[in-house]
Structure formats: structure tokens, C-alpha cells
Amino acid sequence: MISTAVDLLDASLKSLHNPRTMMMFKVLVDMRNDLDNETFIKALYDYSSHVIALNSSEILDILLSPEELSDLNATIAELDEMETQFNG
To answer: Is the pLDDT reported for residue 87 higher than 90?
Structure first.
């Protein structure tokens, strides 16, 4: 249990220290005064979404085995298909 918690912490740090994440943050900081508020807010949202998606992916790799992840993806695809048929 403690090892899982440590792995989750490491996954969060890995997401934040990812080279692309770091570059996005650097650009945000460097260009803050050159951007209007709306553009800055959109860029900040994009950065946050990137970090969350990357972190979620890392966490799924820790918590789910490849088989469980495959089952989850199949279930999501099945639900998407059902929604398409229902709304279609």
C-alpha cells in the first residue's frame, strides 16, 4: 500500500517534470505579460489539461494491469457505441 502511494507520488512528479510540460510552463511564464487575459486563461487551461491527462495516464498504468486497462477500454467503447445507437 505504501509502495503504491509512493508510485502515485512519483507519477505526479513525472508528469510535472515531463520535458513537454516544463516547456509549456516556461512559455506560459515568459509570455504572461504579452498575452491578453483571455488568451492567457486559455493557455493556462491547456497546460492544466495536459498535466491532468498525463498524470491520469501514469496513474492508470500503476493501478491497472494491461488486461484490466484493456477491459476498461473495451467497456468504454461499448458504452460509446450504446450512446451512439441511443442518440443516433
So the answer is: no
